[in-house]
Every structure is written in C-alpha cells, then in structure tokens.
Design brief:
Mean pLDDT: 88
Order of helices and strands: HHHEEHHEHHHE
Oligomer: single chain
Number of strands: 4
Radius of gyration: 20 Å
Largest sheet: 2 strands, antiparallel
Number of helices: 8
Distance between the termini: 17 Å
Low-confidence stretches: 157-164
Shape: elongated
Strand content: 5-15%
Number of domains: 1
Helix content: 55-70%
C-alpha cells in the first residue's frame, strides 16, 4: 500500500467548495437557458405571456412549471455526477469529491437529501456552509443531513502506482 492510500481523505476546505460551486453555477445557468427554451417552446411564448400595463410577465402557471423544470434539471445535473463519479465538472477542476465514509459514491436518495439540504444551507447568508468552519469533521449542514462528505482528491505522484 502506498502512503497516500493508507491515510484518511482530508475534508475539502470551504474556499474549494465555493470555487467548485461558482464553476458549476455557470454550467447550471447554461442548462437553465436550454430548459427555459424547451418549456416556453412547448407552451408557446405567446400563450405564456400576460401584459400588465407596460410590463410583460409570465403567466403564474407557466412560471411555476418553468421553476419546477429548472429545479429538476439542476438536481439531475448534480445527482448524475454525484452518484456516478462523486464529482461534478466544477468539483473535478477544484479536486474535490463527495462520497460516503467508505469512499463509495452516494446513492440517489442521498443526492436528493444533499441537494435540498444544500438549498437550505444557502439560507440565511450561507450559514449551513459556514458551519463546517466550526465542527471537527468539517461538515456542512447538508453533509450531515445526507451522511456524506466532501473530500480533497489527491493527485497521483508522477510514476507512482504505474505498472512498469
């Protein structure tokens, strides 16, 4: 066994989590543009609009359908990556991974709990994220809630673990 494989994974610091979130938020916005186009195309933009004075707003029914589609698409993005590799694209760039305590990928049920818990963690002022600075295991609210953790992904040293 190598030295790095015998050590417990180190918790990811808050700044790396935030950097991965910023990266992933750009991807989510792109997905939401496609989702909005699809939803509004299905209903027809003229059917979705109501004119109030000079302002044009979405009909409340279409607005709620669009909101639900956006939430579902965001969860689908995160759930796919978390349950398959443990890393979204932003997490890959910042070398962090979400996993169970045994190192395995989280389940679909855990992804739902983690996603909804992360939304709650953002309120108020990201308090659920800030709490990882004050507990020994470096867990955010949604980490505790879902029974998962975000850890650093160590890069393999050049030449190490390579078959000759």
């Amino acid at each position: 066994m190598t030295e790095s494989s015998t050590q417990a994974p180190r918790p990811a610091p808050l700044w790396r989590r935030l950097a991965a979130m910023a990266y992933d938020s750009v991807l989510i916005m792109a997905i939401w543009m496609v989702v909005a186009f699809i939803v509004l195309s299905l209903f027809g933009i003229d059917n979705a609009r109501t004119v109030e004075g000079e302002a044009v707003t979405l009909d409340p029914l279409y607005k709620n359908i669009l909101f639900a589609a956006m939430i579902l698409s965001a969860w689908s993005f995160f759930a796919w990556f978390w349950t398959h590799s443990g890393q979204t694209l932003g997490m890959q760039a910042w070398r962090v991974r979400v996993e169970n305590t045994d190192g395995s990928s989280i389940s679909a049920r855990q992804s739902v709990v983690r996603f909804l818990g992360a939304l709650v963690s953002m309120l108020p002022a990201g308090l659920g994220y800030w709490m990882l600075l004050f507990n020994a295991r470096k867990e955010a609210f949604h980490d505790k809630l879902s029974g998962s953790s975000v850890v650093l992904v160590e890069l393999m040293e050049k030449g190490r673990n390579r078959k000759s």
